[in-house]
Amino acid sequence: MSLLSITDMKVSYGHIEAIKGVSLAVEEGEVVTILGANGAGKTTLMRTISGLLKPTAGTITYDGNDITQTRADAIVGLGIAHSPEGRRVFGTLTVEENLMLGAYTRPRTEALETRKQVYDLFPRLLERRLQLSGTLSGGEQQMLAIGRAMMAKPRLLMLDEPSLGLAPIIVKNIFAALADVRKTGVTILVVEQNARIALKLADRGYVLEVGKIVHEDTAKALMASSEVQEAYLGKG
Amino acid sequence: MKLSVNRNIGAVVWIAGLLVPLVASNSWISILSIFAIYAVVALSTDVVLGRAGMYDMGHAVYFGVGAYVTAILNVQYGVPILWTMPIAVVVAAIVGMVLAAPMVKLRGDYLLVATIGFNEIFRMILINDVGGVTGGPDGIFGIGVPSVFGYSISSQEGLFVLNWLLLGIALVLMNNLDKSRLGRVFRYLKEDELAATTLGVNARYYKILAFGLGAGLAGAAGTLFATQLATVSPSAFVFMESVTLFAIVIVGGQASIPGVLLGTVLMFVVPQVFRDLAEYRYLVFGLAMIVVMVLRPQGIWPRRNRPE
Asked: Which residues are the signal sequence here (chain B) (predicted)?
């Protein structure tokens, strides 16, 4: 049984259908990436899984339970952490406060333990722990956003465009950290425009185009596919 | 460290205020009474607007519900004034939560318009004497005096002490809110509701709760307002009053206790003192509000962002 499975899901904003019948599955321990251009529906898909949006059709099953109608805040408690697009750290709070906020649903003593692991993963955050998050660089804020999501000790970590607006060297660092995260057994679902780096990390991938899945394969096969190369990897 | 200094100064000022009736004239005592009542209403507006970040342009409704609950229960049913206060608090809080429930998901500007609508409906209910209990446009007269342990409090001094006590309670509550988990959750929601939700905050629950708390506190102030004036009428709870409360929080400083108190002084005390200048005072206030917003958009006495 898959950790997460979505069947025939449709999501609309008013009259506009952004997701037009998507089915996908994520197995425990896997890293799955969803590739797609701007407006393909990647963020909508993520927000629907985490309960911020409600689908108009279809079901979302997590760990054997139907979570289609579960509230977003309750879904966090079930073990799905969503690091939203654009980082969205609380700029007027310190790094440490942001992290502790990530453990909002957990007891403090457990949270302190997880915080240690997050600091091990991102030593940069430890250095800046008392700094206001608004004063961090973009890369540091992205590390904080990922670290904050990990504070919920999720089984499924969902990342929306972790490479957004970052220098290539920083993107590389962040994906190296994600490779460490997967070693701890956390399942990762990552949405990316940067197909190359996402496919390097992932086991499998889906390609989303205007609300529909058009390709689905192992990361290696997608990397080798001429269509994917042409559209997403910039090879003619 | 600095915060506790501030808090001690606050306590000293509050105690000094309690002694004012010993030296001040009756008109000053009544001005300070009105200040205390409106300060509580302004602090309650701040719970919703400044702390939870919802544009509530109808807060006078909850203040009015509290005042009318006291007036109706006391005049029609003979319930002693101080007994009406808990009822006023509960009824106002329920009204706040029931009105908030369907609209807390609205974005700021839409919420603002919806709350204006509630304020207008409330005014129409009062004026048209719906249910035959509000007294129509004239309101309700002859509200009794409160009594404590059998002693009637009818003097200006006595009422002042009562009002000042409620202000003290409100200040302690707000100060606790500042330090509490609840206060922090409100702040997260205000800053970024989506991010807070992805971390497990039940946004809808806490937003309705903010309306309930704000409305309940306003209801308590309503009881004392009805008592202070011995009469209630619709004109005290109109849209313009809500606008003034909104302006107090924004001009004074959102989520800042001293800021809100300062805003109350500017909007309610200074106009009383400069009564002789009649209409000109509104011109001066309008200009002052514009100048403050342009030069100091965070408010005159803003909240400090400090690591917690």
From this structure: none
